[in-house]
Design a protein that fits this description.
The protein is mostly helical and 183 residues long. It has 6 helices and no strands. It has one domain. Helix 4 runs antiparallel to helix 5.
């Protein structure tokens, strides 16, 4: 059951990241094979579609955590209240991450060196915000769950986030393409 849940989340991550990276992927295909006779099929997702997919990912993530983190009723009531606040705070961080990906897709082909530096600094700042958020919530979760369960929750949260980030990153071309290596 647990493995199936992870596979479901991985699949949802792939679909979500595919929609988010559609512009980037299309631009990369055109850049790498401008004379190719194959026309890439580009999926266009609206912001509303992306929001619905992200909500579904959050639900699947919550399901996996619930399946892997047994709690009694008292612990569960307190934990899920904290989890809902944490998720709300994390959503704000992830909103910025998705804005960055969208901006990168729009700027990628004509990105200047300065824009690339601004982008990567901002991406690292967003990663640091997610890290700081986890650090902020460790003491709060520790007040309602024993240490091993706290560690399990943050391990699950981080693993699932890393899976999503890996899928997202794999859809993004490097800032410097092969043809720009001499710069």
């Amino acid at each position: 059951m647990r493995i199936r849940s992870v596979i479901v989340v991985a699949g949802l991550c792939a679909v979500t990241c595919g929609f988010v990276g559609w512009r980037i992927g299309a631009a990369q295909i055109q850049d790498q094979a401008p004379n190719a006779s194959v026309v890439p099929q580009v999926l266009v997702a609206s912001d509303q579609d992306l929001q619905m997919m992200r909500q579904d990912l959050r639900r699947q993530k919550q399901k996996i955590i619930a399946e892997n983190l047994p709690m009694n009723e008292q612990q569960a009531a307190k934990f899920w209240a904290i989890y809902n606040r944490y998720t709300s705070d994390l959503k704000q961080v992830n909103d910025e991450k998705y804005r960055l990906v969208k901006d990168y897709g729009e700027q990628w082909q004509g990105m200047t060196n300065d824009q690339a530096l601004i982008y990567i600094r901002r991406w690292l700042e967003v990663d640091a915000q997610a890290h700081e958020l986890r650090l902020k919530y460790v003491p709060e979760v520790s007040q309602v769950l024993p240490g091993k369960k706290v560690a399990t929750f943050f391990q699950l949260d981080r693993r699932l986030s890393m899976m999503i980030d890996l899928q997202l990153s794999s859809q993004m071309p490097l800032a410097q393409g092969k043809d720009q290596a001499a710069e």
